[in-house]
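Entry:
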Amino acid sequence: VKLKITAVLRDISNSLIQGKVDEELLDLLEILERLLQEDKDSVIMGSHKSAYCWTAIECTLRFMLPMTASEGFFSDAL
């Protein structure tokens, strides 16, 4: 499990280095949470929960704030 956690953390780090905050990052954070729950020595920190919430907000805002008048409206995201 520790090796899987390390791999997921590396993927998260690479996404952030590339400036990618998207649904893929949300998936990685969810995978990390499941792995941390499996590992008896690990604890899910408040920073993990905060990172998930802020990433979800970032992804949601992309649909709420359109780049042009014809794309990305909040109602379309729902």
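The chain has a mean pLDDT of 87.
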